[in-house]
Amino acid sequence: MWDSRASRHFPRSGLWHDRGVDAPDAPTDADLVARILRGEEELFTLLVDRYKLRLFRFVSRYLGDPEDARDVTQEVFLKLYSALDSFDPRYRFSTWAFRIAGNAAIDHLRRRRIRAIPLELPADDESDRRSIDPVDGKPDPLEELSRTRLREALDLAIERLPDDYRELISLRHHGELAYEEIAELKGMPLGTVKNKLFRARQALRDLLPKGTV
After folding, report:
1. In whole angstroms, what is the distance from residue 177 CA to residue 54 CA?
2. What is the set of domains in the chain, with CATH numbers?
3. Are 80 and 9 in contact (CB under 8 A)?
C-alpha cells in the first residue's frame, strides 16, 4: 500500500526520473539523514536520487522482473523513510539501504513462490526481457544485437551461479558497492570478499558461451 504521507518526497511517477549527479560539495548521506530527522523531510528526495537506480538494479537482479523490481524498490524507500530514526550514523547509509533492499527482495521471492502458478502465460508475455539498461542514442543495429546477446548470456550465466556468488556480483556490479561496503554488509573480512568475488567472476566466465568475453 502506498503511503501518502511519504509520497510527497518521492512520487511514484517521478521516482525513475534522472535528476543528475550530486554537486562536489553536496552533503553526505549521514548529514542528509540528520537534517531529515530534524524536520527537513523534503531532503529525502536527495537520498532517493542517489540510490534509486543502484537499488533498482540490485533488486532487479534478484527478481529478474523489472516491474516487480520497481514495486519492491518503491517499498524499500518507504521502509527507509519510515526507519530513518533507527539508522546508526557510525555506519554507511549505503550498507543499511542495501541490507533492507536485499531483505525486501528475498521476502518478495518467498511470496512469489507461494502464489498459484497460472495455467498458461499470456500471449504477449515478456517476462524473459531482463535488460533494464537505458539505450543512449541509436547504435548500429548489429552492434545493438551483439549487446543484447551479451546481456542475455550474462543474465543466464548469473542465474546459474551459486546464491552467494550471485549476490556478491549483484552488490558489486549492479549495486555499485565498494569492496569495503560489501564486507560491512555481509559481515565478512575484506580479503574474503575480494577472494569470493574473484572466484565468482571466474565461475561467471566459465558459464558464458565461448566468444562472448
Report:
1. 9
2. 1-115 (1.10.1740.10), 141-213 (1.10.10.10)
3. no
Q: How many Cβ atoms sit within 10 Å of the Cβ of residue 72?
A: 22
CB of 177 closer than 8 Å to CB of 55: no
Candidates 53, 64, 65; CA nearest to 15 is 53
Q: Which residues contact 166 (CB under 8 A, 6 or more apart)?
A: 61, 158, 159, 200
List of E strands, 42-100: none
> What does DSSP assign to residue 170?
I
Tens digits of residue pLDDT in 24-33: 578 899 999 9
**Cell numbers linked to 23:** 554537486
- Residues 62-100 pLDDT 10s: 787 889 999 999 999 999 999 999 999 888 999 899 989
Amino acid residing at 108 = H
Cα–Cα dist 102/94, whole Å: 12
